[in-house]
Amino acid sequence: MPKQIYLFSISSHPDAISVNSLDISFFKPFINFLNYDYLILTSKQAVKALKQYKKEEYIEKKALCISTQTAKSYEQLNGQVLELGSGYGDNLKDIIKKYPKEIKWLYLRAETIASSFASELQEEHYKIEERVVYRSECSDAIQNVYVHKNAVFIFTSPSSVKCFLKTHTIEKDKEVIVIGKTTAKALPKQIKYKIAKEKTIQSCFEEIE
User: Fold this and answer.
1) Edge-to-edge, what's the strand order for the sheet holding 81-84?
2) 120 φ, ψ (degrees, to nearest 5)
């Protein structure tokens, strides 16, 4: 029997049983985009949150994007990418440190975040203001999913792992693939896993045995 591939993500893939891991709620805090030089975008959801605002208010602001996928989302709005990170908050920290401390950054973020790069930079007197523009909650789909025994699990975020583990366990013999190191840290210590070479879903599929 061929392996069933389960993709736990807010994205889907035609070759997998795609399980939406999160329900997203958007917020619209007041933002005067004129007060900032650049945006910091760490997810496609942050880009979606921008759509709540008048495009002319923010579209001239270049964005530091955490990954290729986030950058593509901003470019689809006709936004310009300032620089591209490697998918990790620590990497963004290194990039921001190349710029003068006088630069004013606006970090559009989730209510709960995995990286403390912004607060660490604030302590070093970098001008980073944060606005919470969305909340992620575990979906009913991931908490109630039935998984076959002969299965491959692909997790694309720490929250997808945590949400799955609320109602399920991961057996030691399961083939587990994660999109990056931060997601890997959310797995139980005894679970073996592979990390995708690139932070894309397609790269995860290339790791399947």
Assistant:
1) 22-26, 127-138, 104-110, 38-41, 63-65, 81-84
2) -65, -40
Find the Cα–Cα–Cα–Cα dihedral 79, 84, 86, 92, rounded to 10°.
Answer: -100
Amino acid at 207: E
Helices then strands, each counted (H, E), the chain:
9, 11
pLDDT range class, residue 1, cuts 50, 70, 90: low
* Coil/strand/helix, residue 202: helix
* H or E stretch at 175: strand 175-178
CATH 3.40.50.10090: does it fit domain 4-21+139-205? yes
CB 171 within 8 A of CB 190: no
0.85 surpassed by pTM: no
The CATH code of domain 25-137 reads 3.40.50.10090
User: How far is the C-alpha of 15 from the C-alpha of 206, rounded, in Å?
Assistant: 12
